[in-house]
Amino acid sequence: MKVLSVGSELYPLVKTGGLADVMGALPAALAPEGIAMRALIPGYPSVLAGLTKTQPALDIPALFGGDARIISAESQGLPLFVLDAPHLFARPGNPYLGPDGMDWPDNAQRFAALCRAAAMIAQGTVAGFAPDVVHAHDWQAGLLPAYLRFGERPAPPTVMTVHNLAYQGQFPAYLLGTLGLPARAFTIDGVEHYGAIGFLKAGMQLADAITTVSPSYAAEIATPEGGMGLDGLIRARASAMHGILNGLDTAVWNPATDAALAVQFTSRTLAGRAANKQALQARMGLDQDKAVLLFGLVSRLASQKGIDLVIETLPVIDALGAQLVVLGAGDPSIERALRAAVVMRPGRVAATIGFEEALAHLIQSGADAILVPSRFEPCGLTQLSAQRYGAIPVVARVGGLADTVIDANEVGLTAGVATGVQFAPVAADALALGLRRTAALFADKPAWRRMQRNAMALDVSWTQPARRYAALYRSLVN
């Protein structure tokens, strides 16, 4: 079976979040299930620079203001289609934001172009590749089911995956004709959403199946509190909704082979983590103390991620005699608050504003616990990699965090299955309690070691999620 996967990011060519990891990992994960998946992504400069075995697949004249073409290519052995449209994608930096930090004003046309190109492939216009299923990811690919539904040629069934409902792709209604959609598409049963064109809404309305990246998140977004204006649609389409957990690329995230670590280790050689902790403290300018509880935080610095709660509970971290290391970028006010915390707590709090893949791996291998205090979290990959590396995740009891971390409550500890610490509600007081619980567990070394080994024994790979996706594809074709 052939599947066309369509999205705006793919690791390692371009990444701003977990979408890229999923797009990059799914093709290899699905291969053992007999699924040949090929991704279509935009031709950003970083993407074009990372391609090999390129050859033209389809010319597309006058695509939203300029000529474009679909390239057939590979990247690190992964077969791809790339939409080469320099007038839309030959821009440096963030895929979505201009130099002023604001959305590119033509983002509607840029990602509608991606969807139009995908629709052409889906309808069999590229020789040698006729997909049985088309899989669209997030709002940037949301118009794809619309182009297929309102087109004039037969089309394969479609899947729409919601990685984060907070980003919906809303654009003015007057763009309908510009985007090549007929007037009949602008209805409540089509692309219309609160008087605008809703890219994500269109995909969720018109796809044959909808998935999101954890069962708990699928339930949360069906409520008025979590649905962000789409809960009515989600409830109406409940029979088409599937919550499928993300997996982790266990070749990239493997403490036994990870070149970014000071010392590689396994669950049987956990003592190796001490050298990584020492290296992390040295790298970040923290006091060298192997006995101190070291919290790590690797995250986009945004309100959704609850970083303000961590800043609010810094006095609790102080009182516990613990340390904190942060890696991330985002909201300027949060960045300023973290820089101030570093100045006020030298040797105990450290932060790198930005993102470094190698440092992220070192934090997972050297921190004792990883904080994930998200207000909502569709799935989350940080807690998966933390458990893979024997760092105890301290997580809000929401979405995929609740689905992937087994709380160290009395039952979990007695049964010997605990892998982390959950807290609720998502508030500073509850996080403070979670920090204190973590410190008490850290002081009980045998219990802490059991939790680490439990966490490292979890199957966080793509094996089970891939089986569920393959079954979903087959059900749509059948």
TrEMBL record:
It holds the Pfam family Glyco_transf_5. Keywords: Glycogen biosynthesis, Glycosyltransferase, Transferase. It comes from the Bacteria. It catalyses: [(1->4)-alpha-D-glucosyl](n) + ADP-alpha-D-glucose = [(1->4)-alpha-D-glucosyl](n+1) + ADP + H(+). GO terms for molecular function: alpha-1,4-glucan glucosyltransferase (ADP-glucose donor) activity. Pathway: Glycan biosynthesis; glycogen biosynthesis. The keyword Glycosyltransferase applies. Residues 2-235 form the Starch synthase catalytic domain. It is an enzyme of class 2 (transferase). CDD domains: GT5_Glycogen_synthase_DULL1-like. ADP-alpha-D-glucose binds at K15. InterPro entries: Glyco_trans_1 (IPR001296), GS/SS (IPR011835), Starch_synth_cat_dom (IPR013534). Its EC number is 2.4.1.21. Residues 283-437 form the Glycosyl transferase family domain. Synthesizes alpha-1,4-glucan chains using ADP-glucose. Belongs to the glycosyltransferase 1 family. Bacterial/plant glycogen synthase subfamily. NCBIfam families: glgA (TIGR02095), PRK00654.1-2 (NF001899), PRK14099.1 (NF010699). This is Glycogen synthase.
